[in-house]
Structure formats: C-alpha cells, structure tokens
Amino acid sequence: MTISSTVHELPGADALLVDRVRSGDGDALGALYDQYAPRLLRVAWRMLGERAEAEDVLHDLFVGLPEALRRYDDRDRLDAWLIRCVVRLALMRLRQTRRRGEHVALDDRMSSGQVAPDVAVEVRELEVAIAALPMGLRAVFVLHRIEGFSHAEIARTLGISEGNSRVRLVRALGQLQQRLHGAPSPTLD
Question: I need a surface site. Which of 31, 61, 71, 150 has the fewest CB within 10 A?
Fold first, then answer.
C-alpha cells in the first residue's frame, strides 16, 4: 500500500503530510504530488494553454514546495493554497512570455480522434477563446467557472477585491460570447 493511499484516509492527513514535507520527507512530497498534481496540472494548463508550459509550472511548484510550505498557514485549505501557488506561477510565466513577445500556442489535444469531431471543434474553439482572453480575465474565468472557486477565494488568490473578481468574470464571459457567437456582452445589471 502506498503512502498516499493510507495517509489520506486519516483525519488531518494533509497536516501530517505538510509536517513531513517540511522536515524533508521525500515520500510525503511524493504523496502530495500524487494527490494534487492532476488538478494543479489542469489549472496550469487552462491558464497557459500549453501542456508543456503547465508541466513546467507544476515542476517548479513541487521543486520549491518544501521551502514554500514553511510559509503555509495551516488554517488555509491546502488544495486552495496550492492552486493559488500554481496560478501565481502561471501568471508569472505568462508575463515573462508576453515580455519576450512570444506566442503561447495551444497544443492540439483533439487530434487523437478519441473525441467526436463536432465536439472536438467546439472544445477547440472554446479553448482558443479562453486562451485569447487577457491574463486577468482568463485567471478569474478559469478559477471561477472551471475550478469552482468563490469570488472571495479568487480575490485572495489574485490579490484583488471580490467586486473586481465579479467584474472580470462578467467581462470574460462577454468576450467569450463575442468570440464564440458574436453575441453582445452581458452587463452587470
């Protein structure tokens, strides 16, 4: 039986793992990776639009995690804190890419033929539209609509107000509607 399958059945398993990682336990770090990496990778992938970039962000997170966990406040949910870390790393990578004038290309996940062609086209169009959103709008959209964060959690993660999070979401939805359907943008009313 692996550490991740036994430890996470115990109450306070995250706290135990965090303490073990803080003390340098590589198996505990591996257990955290096994538990959280799939979700963190999805968040980074949606933020960056490219799997290789998302994998780099995830790698950077887990390489620095033992040190970063020393600053982790045990009153926060670990999964929410890890997502905040991934979002910050992804935003830093997007800013660096933009400064270098590079274009972050979406990789073609639909080419495998495992998805019906009409669904693949719709998914691809949505991914392209999300990737085209300005960085601040994309972050709020991904966190709220895809990851299920509340506006309060988004505000804490991005260092903005709840009202600003709501405005950014409305703007993101409006831009997506415009790109996908040519529909007018929603209003705050």
Answer: 71
